[in-house]
Amino acid sequence: MDDTRRGAYLALRDVEESKAFSNIAVSRAIKKTTPAGVPFLRELVYGTLRNQIYLDWLIGKFIKTPVEKLPASDRILLRMGLYQLMSMNSVPDYAAVNETVELAKKYAKGRERFLNGVLRSYLREKDEIALPSGDGTADKDVNYLSVKYSFAPWIVQMWMDEFGVTERVECLLESLNTKPRLCLRVNTLKTNATSLKQQLEQQQFMVGTDEDLPNLLYTEGEGLLDTDLYKEGFFSVQDKGSQIVCEALGAKPGDTVADVCAAPGGKSMTIAEGMNNRGSIAALDIREHRLGLIEEAAGRLGVQIVTTQKRDGRQPDKTLAGKLDCVLVDAPCSGLGTARRKPEVKYKPFDAEMRDLPKMQFDILKASSGYVKRGGTLVYSTCTIAQRENGKVVDAFLKDSGAFEIVDRAQLVPFANGTDGFFVCKMQRIH
Asked: Using CB atoms within 10 A as the burial measure, which of 69, 233, 351, 368 is most buried?
């Protein structure tokens, strides 16, 4: 049995059955994989996840049982096999089929013939398979886009309602299905972009710069987090969108700042580095076990101005009332803008938790706004693309408060900005 494929199967099973985040499941699998097998494992896991609805639609062409009624092991193995046949040109057809059957001998005993039959049926009939048509009818367009780009129908419908133009929605879906570039943030407390770029290149990493953010580098290569440069805090991994959010806050050396939903601390660290370790940042989060991640990051990066505190963002801290120069509310959200990195978010159901998010976001924003002194800055951000969590939350807050005005706001999307999907709104306290 191929150990790399076994690792990929176990990672996908973690995501399917235990609702693990894909990046955590992949990291766990990589520890048991040879270095040479890591790129294959990543491609197989993320490619399979990225195309899950489409793969299930394909499976449904060759079986009588509804796909959702199949055992999870069958679904995962068939998705893996089909993805290799469909998209991994380096894998011969016979290897994709045979290795899937070998995995079934351990993880889906007694189902080997069934799985073999489905995969071989696909090979025979693949040239005749056509996507469901999108003919301009709303329901058919949603179904077509949902299958083609593997997004839950409710997400496609929401974006159709918000953007109104099918071509723009399709552009968004396509861009959220692309493999993102790996972004680094240079730790200016310890180095600079030119020096770090040279050091990474000396270690055989491909490195590029960004025209908008001077302390952002793009890299390619395996083992980045195993380097001494990372362990000694010369850089962090952080998407461009997150870095733009911190730029919008505009905290200066000597300022007093709060990062209200701070864990795991990436933005707190970015802000601290931009402040040159001068001033103070209160990193607040309701999850006490995650505060340790912030402290760990601060230790690695040499950040000395961040203090952590367990706090429910919906409950105002009277000791901070009207005292802070800058407050960042990077609110809990649906995370749909991170689909390039965490494709499992594309299959979230619209459940009670999802329905109640805007109320939570409003409550956190309202409570946190009281910390901002007159003339100070309040930034509200999310890593999603949804008016109900973004613009509508801000509009409701402004109407309720009356003490803030918008300086700037933007919805960042991959196809236009080269970022994950981020919303950022900068406001200033006027009285």
From this structure: 368
